[in-house]
Design brief:
The chain is 33% helix and 11% strand. The protein is of the alpha+beta class and 399 residues long. Strand 5 and strand 6 form a beta hairpin.
Length: 399
């Protein structure tokens, strides 16, 4: 697609929604969905897992062009425009104040809007992925450039309120700013389908720094707890009327929308693995079943289904490009993953149930597992992960 079009799509698809939105396309092609440069994540994960039988150089060339010469404007594609040039200079996508009229005709001011904070956070992650690809290709200067850009998310951290927040072209924080409702239908002036309460956790490539920003591990765990237990200040039906993508809502975390998928697994990074085990199982039990209503939102590209498969097996790729999976408790007593060459990776969890959902001990091929994580290498070489489960939390496990 890059060779034919001159840009790498943000997803492996182009859409026909809403008119002819970008330059250099045939009349039959109309847009590039959502935001980000996310094929960078697909490519970086493939390389990390040893899948390199594709033209890495050419794909990297296209992804690099996207990042440095392309537009970041939601649901647009093609060459960089004024807000993109601002981003390149200042390290964040500029936002408008509530009610401020959009001055660029090529930005959709009726529906998708700027999504300024999400654009900055998503591209920070994608640039992290590009840095990993550049390192693989031996392009050290590019690697350093994209590592620097991967820290752009810090430019929108407002320590006074403890959220990633929008800033205008003058560098000022947007006021008023409501972390729950933000501005625009679905908070789209500043976020992509979610609000600041969800995107405060959207730094999958630099979680230790995120934990430090929130005050350290204990404060981070409290922040996670409050996010799942403290609901919107509006009546829920009113909140959902403003935030219709917030499906599967627990507290302020929407189990049914992709930006929240990784959040219950984050306890593992702050020394509270048992809370990941509790929360993942709770979400799976409440929001997923085999009835017509058994998916809690829009199963974009099979995303909800994939989340449930990972949850049922008991591990999840919080940062896919890292090659590491955060551990939880499987739903099944035995899971077997078939591998090439007749090998298999087996997860044994005798007595697994809605009650026995806490890990008391974990052994990989007979040796204690010291961290609540699995690596790609541990899985693909085959073996047995045996979990000893209990009905009560085991806070000291993995410590």
């Amino acid at each position: 697609m890059y060779r034919q079009w001159g840009w790498v799509p943000q997803f492996p698809e182009l859409v026909e929604w809403g008119g002819d939105w970008f330059e250099g396309a045939s009349p039959d092609w109309h847009g590039d969905p959502m935001i980000g440069n996310h094929v960078a994540s697909v490519a970086a994960e493939a390389i990390r897992k040893g899948i390199t039988d594709f033209d890495v150089e050419t794909l990297y060339e296209g992804l690099r062009k996207n990042a440095l010469e392309g537009t970041m404007i939601p649901w647009r594609a093609g060459a960089a425009r004024e807000p993109d040039r601002f981003y390149a200079e200042h390290g964040y996508f500029p936002a408008l104040a509530p009610g401020e009229k959009e001055k660029y005709p090529y930005i959709d001011d009726g529906w998708e809007k700027r999504q300024a904070v999400s654009v900055t956070l998503e591209h920070s992650y994608d640039d992290w992925c590009l840095a990993r690809i550049a390192r693989y290709l031996g392009r050290d200067e590019d690697c350093e450039l994209f590592l620097q850009r991967s820290r752009n998310y810090l430019n929108l951290w407002n320590p006074e309120i403890g959220y990633f927040a929008p800033r205008n072209e003058r560098g000022e924080w947007i006021e008023p700013f409501d972390p729950q409702l933000s501005d625009g239908f679905g908070a789209r002036s500043y976020f992509a389908e979610v609000n600041a309460c969800v995107h405060v956790f959207h730094v999958q490539h630099d979680i230790p720094r995120l934990i430090a920003l929130t005050g350290g591990p204990e404060a981070f765990v409290r922040r996670l707890d409050e996010s799942f237990t403290r609901g919107p200040r509006l009546d829920k039906w009113k909140f959902m009327g403003r935030m219709p993508d917030a499906t599967g809502l627990q507290g302020l975390i929407p189990a049914g929308n992709e930006p929240a998928f990784h959040i219950p697994w984050l306890y593992n990074y702050a020394g509270a693995a048992w809370k990941t085990q509790h929360r993942v199982r709770q979400i799976a039990d409440i929001w997923f079943d085999d009835r017509p209503t058994g998916l809690s939102g829009d199963d974009d590209g099979g995303a909800l289904t994939a989340w449930y498969v990972f949850a049922a097996m008991g591990f999840y790729p919080v940062d896919p490009a890292s090659g590491e999976y955060a551990l939880s408790t499987p739903i099944f007593e035995r899971v077997e993953i078939a591998l090439p060459g007749g090998r298999s990776f087996v997860i044994e969890a005798p007595g697994a149930s809605k009650v026995n959902k806490y890990i008391r001990a974990a052994r990989l091929d007979g040796k204690p597992l010291e961290r609540p994580f699995l690596t790609h290498e541990q899985i693909v070489r085959g073996g047995v992960l045996r979990l000893e489960l209990a009905s009560r939390p085991c806070p000291d496990c993995f410590r």
